[in-house]
Amino acid sequence: MTDRNFTLTLGIIFVVLGVAGFIPGFVWMPENPSPTLLFEPHYFPGDKEFGALFGLFPVNTLHNIAHLLVGGLGIFASADKGSARL
């Protein structure tokens, strides 16, 4: 697998995970939230989208946006061999 293909694959995976985080059917609240969770998970006013992606990974709106940005950068970087290696 070349550097460009690997970068493109990771970029697509990050974009898919970022989009999946915005789909309510893939995100649900964990049954037993951790009792050590001491921060407010709502980063945006009115943000009620905190939950567990596929019931496993805690996500929120800011986390989903970060996945979309990193995935977009990966897809953009895959256009050139030098940027894909970087």
Descriptive notes:
With 86 residues, this protein is mainly alpha-helical. The protein has one domain (3-29, 49-85). It has three helices and three strands. The protein has helices at residues 3-20, 61-77, 81-85; strands at 27-28, 51-53, 57-59. It has a three-stranded antiparallel beta sheet with strand order 1-2-3. A hairpin with a 3-residue loop joins strand 2 and strand 3. Helix 1 runs antiparallel to helix 2 (61-77). It is elongated. The chain starts with a helix and ends with a helix. The relative contact order is 0.26.
Describe the SSE topology.
Layout: H1 3-20, E1 27-28, E2 51-53, E3 57-59, H2 61-77, H3 81-85
Antiparallel strand pairs: 1-2, 2-3
Helix pairs in contact: 1-2
Quickly list its features.
three-stranded antiparallel beta sheet, 86 residues, 47% helix, mainly alpha
**N/C terminus separation:** 16 Å
Average pLDDT metric: 79
Number of domains: 1
Number of strands: 3
Helix content class: 40-55%
| Share of residues in strands | 5-15%
Order of helices and strands: HEEEHH
> Which stretches are low in confidence, meaning pLDDT under 50 for 5 or more residues running?
none
**Could you give a short account of the major beta sheet?**
3 strands, antiparallel
Q: Tell the overall outline.
A: elongated
Largest sheet strand order: 1-2-3
Which structural class best describes the helix and strand composition? mainly alpha
User: Counting H and I runs of at least 4 residues, what is the number of helices?
Assistant: 3
Please state the CA-atom Rg, rounded to the nearest Å: 16 Å
